[in-house]
Amino acid sequence: MIDIPAMTGIRLRDFPEFVRTTNPEDVMLNICIRETGKAHKGSAIFLNTVDALERDVLDALSTMFHPPVYAIGPLQLLEEKQIPKNSELEFIGLNMWAEDLDCLTWLDKKEPNSVIYVNFGSVVRMTSQELLEFGWGLANSKQNFLWAIRPDLITEAKRDLVERLVRELMVEEKGKMMKAKALEWKRMAEDAVVAPAGSSYLNFDNLVNEVLLSKYETS
């Protein structure tokens, strides 16, 4: 166990692979160390999360850093709510890759809650063998899946483990509980970005007025 404020019970294996590395020259590890050190010098720290989801963590961060901390996520939902349709800013997005919407036709033909979505984010990379192993694990689960694979897609995975976890999520009782929790978090995230009282909406407004505009008012 590692003692981290507001994150009791967290284990070393819960951290991303680049944090657990034994290589002091690891690129991602050093980026995190460098950027965390810079956080003390900033005018503000804003995070892509929601007050209601991580209140204890946000309170702990507020005592550790001198700049004020603002939770303004999920940024994609906030952007959708705040940028009017047909605005010149409408095409602002968080995805650096070109979107492929062909999958939507296929998804529309599937029953609700019958497809598992697989996405490793923007950091993880795989060898070709690991990619193949993970793919076989998904296929052996006999469940519908949509897998987003980046063009530049390292994780350790065995097909039997992947198969077991997919079945657990899609078929077993534990998976139903996880889906219910995910829906609860989804509602919390949606409520957070709605004007005029959503927490992320208010925090974003405060960030603009208290940090960005205040510099012009005092100059």
TrEMBL record:
GO molecular function list: quercetin 3-O-glucosyltransferase activity; quercetin 7-O-glucosyltransferase activity
Gene3D superfamilies: Glycogen Phosphorylase B
Residue spans crossing the bilayer: none
The organism's place on the tree of life at top rank: Eukaryota
Sequence similarity: Belongs to the UDP-glycosyltransferase family.
Protein name (database record): Uncharacterized protein
Lineage: Eukaryota, Viridiplantae, Streptophyta, Embryophyta, Tracheophyta
